[in-house]
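Q: Hi! First time doing this. I have a protein sequence and I read that you can turn it into a structure. Is that right? Here it is:
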Amino acid sequence: MDEHRHTQEIPSPEMLDALAELYKLFGDRTRLKILYTLFDRERGVGDIAQQLGMTMSAISHQLRLLKQARLVKARREGKMVFYALADDHVRTIFAQGLDHILE
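A: Yes, that's right. Below is the predicted 3D structure, encoded as structure tokens:
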């Protein structure tokens, strides 16, 4: 028996579109670097920009996309906004992708 055969129904077109959009966000090197900087702790835009050698404007744009996709979350403290990974699913997706390419 083929172990790769699925007995589940194919998800709805809307679900497949949402999944495709999620994976598109992981298809950008800059966004991957931003996510990676958030693996160990939350950070502000300036901190991320400095670490990656990019402008705050460029980082903010990418963070907005990542936040809309619920891959990162934001916490405001006075005038500062700190970003963190939204949940452990983000770490898992990232780690499993790395594991796959290292096989």
